[in-house]
Amino acid sequence: MAKKSYSFYPGCSSQKAASSSNYQVSVDAMCDVLDIELNEIPDWNCCSASIGYAGGGELPRLALSARNMALSEQAHPGQDIVATCAACWLSTKETQERLHSDKDLLAETNTALAEAGLKLKNDKNVRHMVEVLIEDLGYDELGKHVKKPLEGMKIAGYVGCQTNRPFGIAGESFENPMYLDKLINTMGAEACETYEKKVSCCGGALAFSEPEKSQALIKDIIESAYDNGADMIVTPCPVCQMNTEVYQDQINAKYGTKFKMPVVYYSTLMSVAYGKNGKEAGLNGHIIPAKQLEAIAGK
Amino acid sequence: MSNYNNEMVEKFRGNFLKEVEANVEEGDWVKMCMQCGVCSGSCPLGPHWEHPPQEIFMLIRANKREEVLNSSSMWMCTSCYNCIARCPRGLPITHIMHGLATYAKRLGLAPKQQATAKFAQLFWDNLVKTGRVNELKLGLSLYFMNGIGEGIKTSLKMKDIGLGMLKTKRMSPMEMLGGHGCKDAKGLHAILKKAKEIEEAKIGIHGA
Predict the structure, then answer these.
(1) Most-buried pick from A83, A284, A297, B17 (CB within 10 A)?
(2) What HEC string does chain B produce?
(3) Class of domain B3-111 as given by CATH
(4) Nearest CA of chain A to the CA of B104: how many Å?
(5) Residue ranges per domain, chain B?
(6) Looking at the partner chain, which of A51, A59, A118 has a beta carbon nearest the beta carbon of B198?
(7) pLDDT one-digit tens code per residue, A138-196
């Protein structure tokens, strides 16, 4: 397959020494194998995620994403915008759609952008990395590069919210999307078919402001993975990953559980299956080590 | 009570639905709700809402202005978009809840000690400063948002998680010294200032 190029929006949490920097490491390794070129949007800014509304209101929030899109149009004409973070993707795509359907709002946004000499045409597709993998490459192509099938591993595909709703992946249902399970199976592992917490909410940003309420949700998500015999959880979202991994000790202390469930990204799985070593796959970025993946990566 | 609140009470006297339609993001959808309750039943934090979305919509139409705007309910939205995905009438419920929360805050009616309201403002202030989120400063500002005493207690409680993040290089103390940011933060600030001006003019906030 010929090289595929995209205008890439990495997002705050993917930066060096940020909370999902290991996601970025594994995405780079995965893209290297698949011959995907990610051209970083120059001087991109934060999208304000799903919690930006209260401080920013509507137009300033839309202007944040519009600035990124305008910079992308300037630097990478003709290339789709691709994000790896669920919230980055959602905010940018939401802005793209809102400004597409409301010409007044687009004009107002452009008045604001003009303050920095920018202009938005709003003619780009905004896509999640998972869409690129499934739609532009396809499962067959993704499977061709597997050097070390993840045999014998049972994995709960935790899709979560924002890569699934309100946009989701074309052709998938909101209630039971299958793409993550298919990706898991394509890498030679076994997806937990009856994982009932697949699209449940982890609390998102409220894990910070309402920790007890959110941890009750997170507990159910992990418990269900254990009930389904999972060795680990896989997710496409940085907030899902962090919330389901880092609070396990606090949940254990509160509920008397003994959780120690690794939670990795789809790109971690793919990098390992594609023969990358542990460091390249970002495995050293996990607080709860994914020992089975480490063993395969070390072979 | 803020001046803005008094002006809006005066302007929309007795018609809260009209007020919501004019001043709240996606507010003109509220009248479309048919009270089926799917949103309330789909909400992950639903049990904690004083009034779940379905009730909020009816309270708006029943002119219960204070009851809606003083409520902590909308601040419980996790932005999971379950309600949007399932609403048979296609209401953008998540955005309406965000819009109502923002509006309550602008009027000075949002509950003062609401944790998510505070955190959301900290998050916005944090990202605006350099154009990108500084996770370390954001975390610390969250722990200390209710004062030094509680801040120290929370920091100790979160110590192990912080150490884990440090060890796996998903957090760096160097972020205290500035950290990541946009080169053209000045341009970004100018854009945001203009956007705020335009929005406030539309909903009748002047000279803020």
Answers:
(1) A83
(2) CCHHHHHHHHHCCCCHHHHHHHHCCCHHHHHHCCCCCHHHHHCCCHHHCCCCHHHHHHHHHCCCHHHHHCCCHHHHCCCCCHHHHHCCCCCCHHHHHHHHHHHHHHHCCCCCCCHHHHHHHHHHHHHHHHCCCCHHHHHHHHHCCCCHHHHHHHHHHCHHHHHHHHHCCCCCHHHHHCCCCCCCHHHHHHHHHHHHHHHHHHCCCCCC
(3) mainly alpha
(4) 10
(5) 3-111, 115-197
(6) A59
(7) 999 999 999 999 999 999 999 999 999 999 999 999 999 999 999 999 999 999 999 99
